[in-house]
Design a protein that fits this description.
Dihydrodipicolinate Reductase, domain 2; nine-stranded mixed sheet; three-stranded parallel sheet
């Protein structure tokens, strides 16, 4: 993903890549050469912040490093565009909400799969149905990544499902209330943790959103975006996860790619937010509930019970208060009323 972001940055007319930080300096220098950039390389973010005085940081570290890097940049006065997920835990994400507020700088999470012309068209088709009673996603892929994903406890939910969960919030214009989830690992799976899941979310408009997926499903694979179906009082609409959108209300359409999509779309929204001051859809405070959907699904699978998302957010808030953080962050956390109007989510 680091190299993918470097290619996107160097291809954009809106930004200039001035520095790359990586623990493996030789690898970073090779990547800089590969994309044809003239960028400084350093083993630390701090060194690059001093040397380049950038207008922004794009954080493509592993999830466990997101909080540390984001907070360092924010308190250096630099806004951040960070790869999803914001953090491995909801409590750490809550800390980052407080850090962005305390530092007075934008922290945006790149939910790159929101940026598809076909998804925007599907959202319009879903709106034609009235309030949908049911939204479903089927996701079936068999990637062999190797590395950290193969060792995760919940690789599908934690590393991939957030894309679909976030898209469900976008499509419905509603927020999740609770979830019941079951996960398992098929006998042929090459993952150590559970690579299959079914989760049923209740949204605050009454819609049920059902996600069913497997990351060890060879043959007849779905799009990386999954296959979608929404049913409401006015009919049904489907999206194949690529360019085909179909509605019983307004027919079918093949939607070509439009402008910047995926991480290029996230970058475009980030740049626009910095230039205009408008809050982007991926601002950390707005993204927390997508991450909460993931953590709630994991906890439901582990406990065998339905998990309430507001209760989970309140627990995360108290966990955040118990963790060692900068004084400015703690002051911001303490200024929020517990699970009140000022706290995240």
């Amino acid at each position: 993903m680091g190299l993918a972001w470097m290619r996107t940055l160097t291809a954009s007319d809106d930004v200039e890549l001035v520095g790359v930080a990586d623990l493996d300096v030789d690898r970073a220098e090779a990547a800089v050469r590969a994309v044809g950039a003239d960028a400084k390389v350093d083993v630390s973010l701090g060194g690059l912040l001093t040397a380049t005085e950038p207008d922004a940081v794009v954080n493509v570290t592993v999830p466990a490093a997101h909080s540390e890097v984001n907070i360092e940049a924010l308190f250096a006065g630099v806004p951040v565009l960070c790869e999803k997920p914001a953090a491995p835990t909801l409590a750490e994400a809550v800390i980052q909400v407080a850090a962005a507020e305390a530092a007075g700088r934008l922290l945006m999470i790149s939910q790159s799969r929101r940026y598809y012309a076909a998804l925007a068209e599907y959202r319009r088709r879903v709106a034609e149905l009235g309030t949908p009673g049911l939204l479903t996603t089927g996701f079936f892929r068999g990637p062999r990544f190797g590395g950290f994903r193969d060792e995760m406890e919940q690789p599908l939910l934690v590393d991939m499902a957030i894309h679909a969960f976030d898209a469900a919030r976008y499509l419905l214009g509603a927020e999740p209330v609770s979830v019941s989830c079951e996960t398992w690992n098929p006998v042929w799976s090459w993952y150590r943790g559970d690579a299959a899941a079914t989760a049923t979310f209740l949204f605050d408009d009454g819609t049920r959103y059902v996600y069913t997926g497997a990351w060890c499903a060879d043959g007849l694979e779905t799009s990386w975006n999954g296959e979608w179906r929404a049913t409401g009082s006015g009919g049904t609409a489907t999206w194949d996860g690529e360019g085909r959108v179909t509605s019983s209300v307004s027919g079918a359409a093949d939607v070509p790619p439009g402008g910047n999509e995926q991480i290029a779309g996230a970058l475009e929204e980030f740049v626009a937010a910095l230039r205009t001051g408008a809050e982007p859809s991926g601002a950390i405070a707005r993204n927390v509930r997508s991450l909460a959907m993931v953590e709630a699904a994991v906890r439901s699978a582990e406990s065998g019970t339905r998990v309430q998302i507001d209760a989970l957010l309140e627990q995360a808030y108290h966990e955040a208060l118990s963790l060692p953080v900068r004084e400015e962050i703690r002051s911001r956390l303490e200024s929020w009323t517990p699970r009140g109007t000022d706290s995240p989510g």
